[in-house]
From TrEMBL:
Gene Ontology cellular component annotations, sorted alphabetically: plasma membrane
Native organism: Oceanirhabdus seepicola
Membrane topology, from the record: Multi-pass membrane protein
Principal subcellular localisation of the protein: membrane
Protein name per Swiss-Prot or TrEMBL: Phosphate transport system permease protein PstA
Transmembrane segments: 12-33, 66-87, 99-123, 129-149, 181-202, 247-272
InterPro entries reported in the protein's UniProt record: MetI-like, MetI-like_sf, Phosphate_PstA
Top-level lineage group: Bacteria
Keyword Oxidoreductase set for record: no
GO MF entry, a single one: phosphate transmembrane transporter activity
Length: 280
């Protein structure tokens, strides 16, 4: 068998595997949307919570999910990008950097339930806050910061290869080069990390069970020190407690709504990133 034939065979196999993965993903999404198509009902989202006849009223949980996303990104994005800048442009190989990288890898491998228990110990008990939206956001920051730092480091390192020497040769300082040249060039890669992080924040439940709680106390919507049940936690509660007659139907609608919201957010973030790149 000659090399060209082998190449065609393995290329075909890889295409088939890729198509199978895509079809499986599409089938899963369509199944979720079909089972939860009643989420399109206005009352399912914004109506009062009710039980029976596919009751919903998941608006508070949807708001909490978006609010949790905003607070978590506001904390984790500056720290993650800063860590990426330090590791790629300022750090020198030594014991401290090796320990730092080991710590990042270790935290990245932790199950979300472990991070949730750690958050329960620190942000709920020792702090005296109780179950709060801020505690949940801090737990999610710990969970997602390693991935965001690694993506930022790789994107900044790759961008620096193209523009760093040119900027320094024209008289720019190191900080000017990083702030005005490297980070804008690396922005598409950083945005990808932010989108991945945001998707995990939307869908995370285990870490929030022990930190933000399972109640929707929306007195003072913007108060970060209140309990905040997100949509993912609400789905878990419906499927675990068994006290709601149509729990499965509500959970299906909430799951479909969650999938649609994640898709809309991802598309909006990419469109915004492209527009920012055109006008920078």
């Amino acid at each position: 068998m000659d090399r060209k034939l082998k190449d065609k065979i393995w290329t075909s196999i890889l295409y088939l595997i890729s198509c199978a993965v895509v079809l499986l993903l599409v089938a899963l999404v369509l199944y979720i949307l079909n089972n939860g198509k009643h989420f399109l009902d206005f009352d399912f989202i914004f109506g009062k919570p009710k039980y029976g006849e596919e009751g919903g009223g998941v608006g508070p949980q949807l708001f909490n999910s978006f609010y949790m996303l905003i607070i978590t990104l506001a904390i984790s994005v500056p720290i993650g990008i800063g860590a990426g800048v330090y590791l790629s442009q300022y750090s020198k190989e030594g014991p401290f950097v090796r320990i730092l990288r080991l710590s990042i890898e270790t935290i990245a491998s932790l199950p979300s339930i472990v991070v949730g228990l750690f958050g329960f110990l620190i942000f709920v008990n020792l702090s005296g806050w109780g179950f709060t939206l801020l505690g949940g956001a801090l737990a999610l920051t710990l969970l997602n910061l390693p991935a965001l730092a690694r993506v930022s480091e790789n994107a900044i390192t790759e961008a620096a290869l193209d523009v760093k020497e040119s900027s320094m040769a024209l008289g720019g300082t190191k900080w000017q080069t990083i702030w005005k040249m490297i980070i804008p060039t690396a922005f598409p890669g950083i945005l990808t990390g932010i989108i991945i992080t945001a998707g995990r924040i939307f869908g995370e439940a285990a870490a929030l069970l022990y930190t933000s709680g399972m109640s929707s106390n929306n007195k003072g919507l913007l108060n970060v020190m209140r309990p905040a049940e997100t949509l993912a936690v609400h789905i878990f509660k419906l499927n675990s407690e068994g006290t709601v007659p149509d729990a499965a139907s509500i959970a299906s609608g909430a799951a479909a709504l969650l999938v649609v919201m994640v898709f809309i957010f991802n598309m909006s973030a990419r469109l915004l990133g492209r527009r920012m790149m055109k006008h920078r």
